[in-house]
Amino acid sequence: MTSISIGHVVPQSLHFAEPLPLRSGAVLADYTLVYETYGTLNASKSNAVLVCHALNASHHVAGTYEGQERSEGWWDNLVGPGKPLDTDRFFVIGVNNPGSCFGSTGPMHTNPATGQPYGADFPVVTVEDWVDAQARLLDRLGIEQLAAVMGGSLGGMQALAWTLRYPQRVRHCIAVATAPNLSAQNIAFNEVARRAIISDPDFHDGHYQRHGVIPRRGLRVARMIGHITYLSDDVMEQKFGRQLRAAELGYSTQDIEFQIESYLRYQGDKFSEYFDANTYLLITRALDYFDPARDHGGDLTRTMAAATAKFLVVSFTTDWRFSPARSREIVKALVDNRHEVSYAEIDAPHGHDAFLLDDARYHGVVRAYYERIAKELA
Q: Is there a single domain that holds both residue 38 and residue 124?
């Protein structure tokens, strides 16, 4: 099957005046969700697939924006005509979560109660809050049940949450490079990144917009920390090794000496140009808080008993941020409940970033699973 680009796409938005109760006890009184759709919803509205985004991604899953160079969606290699998630067969929806900085209501928007940007006053949001917001958007679109919900990393956590909060509304769940909760090490990485932002002199207790500044230094460091965890040691060694930036050592404690340092600074600089610091704090905290088994005494098997969907779980051997062992925990809990689950552990060198990259085996597994779902629709 030949795959082609989905072409130019246009974001849409829906405003919600109905208050959204949050797990923290706070309420998001008035909010807008930005989303994109690809493909065509069939007459029975049974071919919808919700794709959930990870930390620094958005509703822009696939396609390009007219007049913008290098504007491909973050999963453009996987979603589109003839691709593993085939938009000739499925109606795909990408939603930007509340608290983000890509259009949906978040810290950069005006707080109607004060007339000032929310900043640090934006309420703390959780994975479950995002799923509730997504469910309301599907209600507006007239979609009662999803053919599938899919996500990688933090997006995979949302996919799992869907099967627990709205079990009757999901027929299949595809959870990629994810975990049932964060390890202590992962929480530690997130905390160091948050401290880098909060300790930036331009942070101003989260109200930097009112001061006309951006805590770029903190954002740069936060991104550098995160990026290290997304790559495997093998990939970093292969791409950079101990290559020097100049011909000789400069014997400096502050200048860039190694190519890996240059790469990380480039990634940090680029990130600080488009991402919001308060959003980074909110989303990493949502990662920390996700732990559906907490309500069941830490017993994941008891937790997953509520699910009725069929599952595909995918992990990558060199992903040490969300290791295969964490995916196997999910699989075991599903098997213990006699739920139908397929599991693929891909031997890929790329680390956590593998879920975003081209890998024939990985894409083959996803393609085969969606072909199975398409047959159910026929």
A: yes
* Residue 269 labeled ligand binder: no
DSSP 323-357: -HHHHHHHHHHHHHTT--EEEEEE--SSGGGGGGS
319 a catalytic residue: yes
Residue numbers of the domain that contains 345: 12-181+292-377
Instruction: Select which of 58, 319, 327, 363 is catalytic.
Output: 319
Same domain? For 27 and 118 the reply is yes
Q: Are residues 129 and 40 in the same domain?
A: yes
Of 90, 85, 84, 112, whose CA–CA distance to 28 is shortest? Answer: 112
Number of domains making up the chain: 2
Q: What is the pTM of this model?
A: 0.96
Q: Is 296 a catalytic residue?
A: no
Write the pLDDT tens digit of every residue in 136-150.
Answer: 999 999 999 999 999
| Residue 205 annotated to the active site | no
Tokens of 162: 């869907």
Task: Tell me how far apart the alpha carbons of residues 146 and 172 are, in angstroms, rounded to a whole number.
Answer: 8
- Structural contact between residues 315 and 331, judged by C-beta atoms closer than 8 angstroms: no
> Which of the four pLDDT bands, split at 50, 70 and 90, describes residue 202?
very high
Among residues 284, 301, 319, which one ends one of the domains?
284
Euclidean distance between the first and the last CA atom of the chain, given in angstroms as a whole number: 19
Q: Is residue 4 part of a domain?
A: no
Given the residues 58, 153, 232, 327, select the one marked as catalytic. 153
